[in-house]
Fold this protein.
Amino acid sequence: MSPETKLPKVGTTIFTVMSQLAAEHGAVNLGQGFPDFEVPARLVDALTRAMREGKNQYAPMTGIPALRQAIAAKTERCYGHRPDADSEVTVVSGASEAIFDAIHAVVRPGEEVIVLDPCYDSYEPSIDLAGGRAVHVPLDPRTFAVDWDRVRAAVTPKTRMLMINSPHNPSGAMFTPDDIAHLSALLRQTGIYLLSDEVYEHIVFDGVRHESVLRYPELRERAFVVSSFGKTYHCTGWKIGYCIAPPALSAEFRKVHQYNSFCSFAPAQWAFAEMIEAEPEHYEQLGAFYEAKRDRFRAQLSATRLQALPVAGGYFQLVDYSAISDLDDVAFCHWLTIEKGVTAIPLSPFYESAPANQRLARLCFAKNETTLDAAIERLIGL
């Protein structure tokens, strides 16, 4: 007996599909977004020490106090705002859990959530499971800038939440101060909540400032701001993130978190608390670390017919392959994996309805130089 599916549009994620295909064909996997270099030594040592010291049982539901205090201090250092560690900071099992919890905390059946396409694939299923409806507003298909007139036109009396993501996955585009002004004006005198996905907050390039919602009192009073230790510290498999929200929103968020995962991996929390305080230069220098990788990879791509689009932040490079193939993006990424031995992610799964004839694929440059060199060697001649 088969149950009626609650997620009729959901199958196996494109990331899993392409990674499996990469493994089957021995391809260099630049698809799924994970680093293949080492976690900071201090962090590994701190994790090992925490486990050996017996810090292996349940953490407090909201996160260990030392980590919440470290997050609050780091937020003040970065964005000039110190959230209350007890009432506004919650540690969770990765940013995906934080997104799920925030949506379920406030979105009720029949309400609408505006998402900006292309967007990460977990957004809409989380909305669907809450009984809400995702309203998709497309970004500019080349620059991935927000058309605020289209966002404003999408607002209805049923709109409960707007979701934003900067630096943006998959494009790497970033919000500007002008975007913040438009966003503030749009939400002013409404009851619409804001979910700001800022997992790539420290991976920003060319001297540009990350416009965190936490910088702006008018926005943060209605916002869930989501961050990821996995992205910042090269340990995506640890699945630890956090959410900062005002006390009333955090209280509702924690109700969902409490019956979702309850708490997150305790030894890692102790390790992150130590790492944040002892080595702030890690996140302060992360943009420069990845900017060098971006620049080197883009220079290498110039030896191919793949056209590299601008990347302002994050660790993904979009490439236009229209000079190479007329295949749609899913077919092209399969062909690239099987015939050329390099795996990319197609862009269309990030959309409700992808632009017609868009020929873009996403490559991850959060890799060792040897990995990127091996990929380029196979791509030369395309």
User: Anything to note?
Assistant: Residues 286-301 form the longest helix (16 residues). The CA atoms of residues 59 and 266 lie 5 Å apart. DSSP finds 15 helices and 13 strands in the chain. The two ends are 49 Å apart (CA to CA).
